[in-house]
């Protein structure tokens, strides 16, 4: 039976960063991405793969909220879906159901950037095999799989303007979440204070200045995520030029 103790930090002694369970989870992520890539052109992937990812996304969120309420751990300061990855999760479900390109353009940057950072430096106070550990990695891995499903299976692409769409969307989301934090006394998206565990934010200065520094870091990350598409476009252009010679 789950404890009803409401202080999450009491469940953890030390950091999960690069622990055995953390490294194994990262290996599972890479293995699932490799599986998705290798079977991306199989007809059954569109029929089965998409719904399995949707189940991972929606199921993990439903399961999480059931656990919050059944253990009396629901708290407006911590459990609303206003962390970046929670927002990305909902957008991923909509993206997979509706296959809208503009949602993919936003989620590609927000989802991969946010979920990858979360997987590398997890803000998590429960180790394997606790439910919260399993939920954390199922949800974040599903976000990444959703994005690469659209990229590899549905053949969606992003353009340079997609960088600015995603950056603009992120700032609108941040403004809304900032107001939510003021109302709830929460720390969603870490806009009120730094996370308590070790993370990349530790290198970006004190509060509130790290938020401005983070804007620049996010833009750089978005540009790096766009780089493969830029290289692909330049390669195609070069081939077209060579074909005309």
From TrEMBL:
<feature type="transmembrane region" description="Helical">
    <location>
        <begin position="209"/>
        <end position="231"/>
    </location>
</feature>
<dbReference type="Pfam" id="PF14808">
    <property type="entry name" value="TMEM164"/>
</dbReference>
<keyword id="KW-1133">Transmembrane helix</keyword>
<feature type="transmembrane region" description="Helical">
    <location>
        <begin position="20"/>
        <end position="39"/>
    </location>
</feature>
<feature type="transmembrane region" description="Helical">
    <location>
        <begin position="133"/>
        <end position="152"/>
    </location>
</feature>
<feature type="transmembrane region" description="Helical">
    <location>
        <begin position="51"/>
        <end position="68"/>
    </location>
</feature>
<protein>
    <submittedName>
        <fullName>TIGR02206 family membrane protein</fullName>
    </submittedName>
</protein>
<dbReference type="InterPro" id="IPR011737">
    <property type="entry name" value="CHP02206_TP0381"/>
</dbReference>
<feature type="transmembrane region" description="Helical">
    <location>
        <begin position="102"/>
        <end position="121"/>
    </location>
</feature>
<feature type="transmembrane region" description="Helical">
    <location>
        <begin position="80"/>
        <end position="97"/>
    </location>
</feature>
<feature type="transmembrane region" description="Helical">
    <location>
        <begin position="164"/>
        <end position="184"/>
    </location>
</feature>
<keyword id="KW-0472">Membrane</keyword>
<keyword id="KW-0812">Transmembrane</keyword>
């Amino acid at each position: 039976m789950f404890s009803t103790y409401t202080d999450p930090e009491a469940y953890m002694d030390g950091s999960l960063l690069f622990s055995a369970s953390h490294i194994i989870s990262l290996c599972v992520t890479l293995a699932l991405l490799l599986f998705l890539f290798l079977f991306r052109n199989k007809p059954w992937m569109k029929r089965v793969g998409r719904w399995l990812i949707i189940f991972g996304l929606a199921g993990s969120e439903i399961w999480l909220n059931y656990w919050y309420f059944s253990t009396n751990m629901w708290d407006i300061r911590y459990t609303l879906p206003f962390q970046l990855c929670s927002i990305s999760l909902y957008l991923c479900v909509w993206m997979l159901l509706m296959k809208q390109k503009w949602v993919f353009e936003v989620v590609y940057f927000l989802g991969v950037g946010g979920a990858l950072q979360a997987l590398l430096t997890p803000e998590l106070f429960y180790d394997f095999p606790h439910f919260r550990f399993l939920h954390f990695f199922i949800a974040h891995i599903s976000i990444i799989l959703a994005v690469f499903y659209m990229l590899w299976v549905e053949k969606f692409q992003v353009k340079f303007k997609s960088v600015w769409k995603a950056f603009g969307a992120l700032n609108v989301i941040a403004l809304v979440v900032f107001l939510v934090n003021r109302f709830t006394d929460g720390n969603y998206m870490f806009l009120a204070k730094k996370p308590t565990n070790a993370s990349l934010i530790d290198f970006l200065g004190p509060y509130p200045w790290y938020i401005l520094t983070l804007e620049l870091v996010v833009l750089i990350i978005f540009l790096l995520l766009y780089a493969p598409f830029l290289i692909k476009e330049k390669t195609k252009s070069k081939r077209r030029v060579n074909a005309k010679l």
